[in-house]
Amino acid sequence: MDNGEQRNGEQRPPELRTLRQKVEYMVEKTFPGQKISGRVFADLVKQRGGSLSHSYFSNILAGKVTHPSEDILKALGLGFGVDWRFFKDESEVVGDVVAGLQFLAKRRTGDISAVAARGNDEDGIPAELLEFALSLLEETKQKDSDEQRPDGR
Q1: Under CATH, to which class is 6-87 assigned?
Q2: Segment 105-115, tens digit of pLDDT
Q3: I need a labelling partner for 151 at 20 to 30 A (CA). Which of 57, 70, 88, 109 fits?
Q4: Is-contact 81 27, C-beta < 8 A?
Q5: Closest by CA position to 22, among listed 73, 70, 69
Q6: At CB < 8 A and 24+ separation, what contacts does 63-67 make?
Q7: pLDDT reported for residue 95
């Protein structure tokens, strides 16, 4: 299947499984009709507060890099102006989504009433998920206190 194949007159989303496919897609969408060099992209990332070497970017486009560090994914996100998680392996994203859904389910059943971050190792809760969890808890506390007011406000 090529990028954007049509079926029944509808444009289908492209199949983006590899890092190379995702970066090529973003180059095409972010810089339409332009040939973007590794140096230009690396400079753009630097201007936006990140760090990515031009040769590393070229190696991604050549398919030589398939599993970069999270810092590299964040640099790609900065350069293209998108959430860096777009570039993660699908299995990693699915894992994050499943963890988030499990948290929500436990919160709704009352199995979780508070959140405490324990450690900053790779197996801990991602910072974004922790922020989201804390915002949900705060929202729930606010709703609970509003419901307990005698005037119902």
Answers
A1: mainly alpha
A2: 777 777 766 65
A3: 109
A4: no
A5: 73
A6: 63/18, 63/20, 65/19, 66/18, 66/19, 66/20, 67/19
A7: 64
Q: Is 17 exposed, middle or buried (0-12, 13-18, 19+ CB in 10 A)?
A: exposed
Compute CA distances 119 → 113, 124, 145, whole Å: 19, 6, 31
pLDDT score, position 23: 94
Q: How many helices (H) and strands (E) does the chain have?
A: 6, 2
Give the helix, strand, coil percentages of the chain, each rounded to 5: 55, 5, 40
Minimal CA–CA distance to 64: which of 53, 55, 73? 55
Phi-psi map region of 117: left, alpha, beta (phi>0 left; psi -120 to 50 alpha): beta
C-beta separation of 117 from 107 below 8 A = no
Amino acid at 132: F
**Residue 130 tokens, joined:** 């922790």
What pTM was computed for the model?
A: 0.57
Distance CA 136, CA 131 (A): 9
Cα–Cα distance measured from residue 83 to residue 78, given in angstroms and rounded to the nearest whole number: 8
**Where exactly are the structural domains of the chain?**
6-87, 90-147
Structure-model confidence comparison of residues 132 and 28, the more confident one: 28
Residue 4 to residues 10, 13, 33, 82, 107, Cα–Cα distance (Å): 9, 5, 16, 20, 39
